[in-house]
Specification:
about 190 residues
């Protein structure tokens, strides 16, 4: 898989973190630089560790499913993408001026990174090295979360939903790309 595809996957995965960051930016009364960095770091660490954990789990089963791994990657990415689109289309109620507790932040970080676990499994099934994707996913999530927090602070709540829909479309597109590459070019 080329670097552009990994970057697109990272952007797609980071859309959940972006949407939650926008919401946090809207709801946290006193959004200091320290809080912005802590929130962004938390999202990026979870988002980077989950594909690593998924990759380690996927290595153990790779030899048994090599003949149809591209279909699994396609369905996982498509499922995640459809889920993101669905969640982006749902209406969200946002509480105003709430504080973000550490357990809430950890819950948000975990919830937004579950999709990355499946991506890690896909990387293992495609026999990809995990180091570069983990670094790219972590870095992009950190930057996207910073941007989301600032946008949430200054703009409205509508942007979070539309960006999550875009992220879902990107993941579905990557799934189709993997499927076509393996069916027609290998």
């Amino acid at each position: 898989m080329d670097t552009i595809s990994i970057i697109l996957i990272a952007i797609g995965l980071s859309m959940d973190s972006f949407a939650v960051s926008v919401t946090n930016g809207l709801t946290i009364k006193d959004l200091t630089v320290k809080r912005v960095l802590i929130i962004s770091f938390s999202f990026s660490i979870f988002q980077a560790l989950m594909p690593l954990i998924g990759w380690l789990a996927g290595i153990g089963i790779e030899k048994y499913i090599k003949a149809f791994d591209h279909w699994i990657a396609f369905f996982l990415l498509s499922f995640i993408g459809v889920k993101m689109i669905y969640e982006g289309l749902r209406k969200n109620e946002i509480a105003k001026d709430s504080e973000l507790k550490i357990l809430t932040l950890m819950g948000q970080s975990f919830a937004t990174s579950i999709d990355a676990f499946a991506i890690g499994i896909s990387f293992a099934l495609l026999d990809l090295s995990i180091v570069t994707p983990v670094l790219i996913i972590g870095l992009i999530t950190f930057v996207v979360s910073l941007i989301g927090l600032q946008l949430g602070k200054y703009f409205g709540k509508r942007i979070g939903r539309s960006v999550e829909i875009f992220g879902g479309i990107v993941l579905i597109g990557i799934g189709f790309k993997i499927l076509i590459e393996h069916l027609y070019f290998q």
